[in-house]
Design goal:
CATH superfamily: 2,3-Dihydroxybiphenyl 1,2-Dioxygenase, domain 1
Number of helices: 3
Radius of gyration: 16 Å
Oligomer: single chain
Helix content: 25-40%
Structural class: alpha/beta
CATH class: Alpha Beta
Distance between the termini: 30 Å
Strand order of the largest sheet: 1-4-3-2
Length: 136
């Protein structure tokens, strides 16, 4: 069986802020921008992985109004799970994110499991980690 990741989803509360962050700060490409019934979905991805996409989606677009409100509150608290990216230079990436005004949650540090990583939140509050393998 040959299985590969195609898309993952990150909930965002402001598509314009999310696009400015993921495209302009992190350097991901905008691949799709779709509006439907007053909501907006953005698809971004790394130029190094043309077959993998991250969909930046509105909070619980297909949920009930009560569930959407609950998810929006959880997003604002920063308790939703995020994504782990890789980078060849954790320090440079962390500095670029800091210069963009993003709060750093964890400065680059060596981990006992063989990577160097840092952590911060995107404009919606999602946890993002960037890791650099010890071997390169």
């Amino acid at each position: 069986m040959d299985v590969k990741l195609k898309q993952c989803f990150i909930t965002v509360d402001d598509p314009d802020k999310a696009l400015a962050f993921y495209r302009d700060v992190l350097g991901l490409q905008l691949r799709n921008d779709v509006e439907y019934e007053g909501l907006r979905w953005l698809t971004v991805g790394s130029p190094l992985q043309p077959d993998v996409e991250i969909v930046l989606e509105p909070p619980a677009a297909d949920a009930s109004p009560a569930d959407r409100e609950t998810l929006t509150r959880l997003l604002a608290k920063g308790v939703l799970r995020g994504v782990i990216f890789t980078t060849p230079d954790c320090e440079a990436l962390c500095e670029k994110v800091r210069e963009a005004g993003t709060e750093i949650l964890q400065e680059p540090m060596d981990q006992p499991y063989g990577v160097r990583d840092c952590a911060f939140r995107d404009p919606a509050g999602n946890l993002l980690r960037f890791m650099q393998r010890a071997d390169g």
